[in-house]
């Protein structure tokens, strides 16, 4: 094991505590998870990275949490008692149909080769009436528009950042509001909600965390919630 999960959680949390955007986004994720079966749901995370979101924000708000990734980047022995890690291919999950009350994925869909298949697998293992939540950067966020106006538009694949555990963070694509509607068009679910989170510049902690609807089209991040 190359990295100690306790150290990594603390490093990530130090950054999160300084970032209003990350705090607002993760607290909203926790609130949605807590609303599933009054905090007693069986929950799946697809693409957990080094498990910082799971350990601090999600595990306290559910009965059982299964976290997955394509490789083990966390120390399972250091996870909360209600949480277990499994190596999984997000394109072909090993779980039976309708295995979970809720599924969430934080900043993963922009990395996968087939986002529609990624969501189909999530919906497959989700119980009827359950919640699937994913977050992803907005292709039309203010900072991306500023790059376009200055003649330096984002071109994909784009290396967005570097993480000490995950390495280079490369986005294969990003999604505008129209892109999301097109992506969801071929899927089967009963309800959907698309929310723009943080209108502003997170790097400088400048912005509106939960902007009014007229500003959401240019928010920094999308929270997409599907009810099966």
Structure write-up:
The protein is α/β, with parallel strands linked by helices. It has one domain: Rossmann fold. Helix content is 29%, strand content 29%. The protein contains seven helices and eleven strands. The strands form three sheets. It has a seven-stranded mixed sheet. Strands 6-7 form a two-stranded antiparallel sheet. Strands 9-10 form a two-stranded antiparallel sheet.
Order of helices and strands: HHEHEEEHEHEEHEEEHE
Give the full name of the CATH homologous superfamily: Vaccinia Virus protein VP39
CATH topology: Rossmann fold
Strand content: 25-35%
Provide the residue-averaged pLDDT. 91
The order of strands across the largest sheet is: 3-2-1-4-5-11-8
Q: How many domains, in number, for the residues?
A: 1
CATH class: Alpha Beta
Low-confidence stretches: none
Structural class: alpha/beta
Count every beta strand, where a strand is a DSSP E run of 2 or more residues. Answer: 11
How would you name the oligomeric state of the polypeptide chains in this document? single chain
The helix tally amounts to 7
Q: Using only CA atoms, what is the Rg?
A: 17 Å
**CATH architecture grouping:** 3-Layer(aba) Sandwich
3D shape: globular
């Amino acid at each position: 094991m190359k990295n100690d999960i306790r150290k990594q959680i603390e490093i990530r949390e130090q950054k999160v505590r300084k970032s209003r955007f990350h705090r607002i986004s993760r607290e909203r994720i926790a609130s949605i998870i807590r609303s599933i079966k009054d905090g007693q749901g069986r929950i799946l995370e697809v693409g957990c990275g080094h498990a910082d979101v799971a350990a601090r924000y999600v595990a306290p708000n559910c009965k059982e949490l299964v976290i997955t990734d394509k490789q083990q980047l966390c120390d399972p022995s250091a996870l909360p008692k209600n949480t277990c890690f499994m190596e999984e291919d997000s394109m072909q999950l090993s779980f039976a149909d309708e295995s979970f009350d809720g599924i969430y994925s934080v900043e993963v869909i922009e990395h996968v080769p087939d986002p529609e298949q990624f969501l189909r697998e999530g919906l497959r293992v989700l119980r009827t009436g359950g919640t699937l939540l994913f977050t992803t950067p907005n292709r039309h966020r203010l900072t991306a528009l500023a790059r376009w106006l200055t003649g330096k538009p984002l071109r994909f694949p784009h290396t967005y950042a570097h993480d000490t555990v995950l390495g280079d963070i490369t986005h294969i694509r990003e999604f505008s509001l129209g892109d999301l509607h097109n992506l969801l068009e071929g899927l089967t679910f009963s309800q959907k909600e698309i929310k723009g989170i943080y209108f502003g510049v997170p790097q400088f902690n400048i912005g509106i965390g939960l902007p009014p609807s007229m500003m959401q089209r240019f928010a920094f991040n999308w929270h997409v919630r599907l009810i099966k």
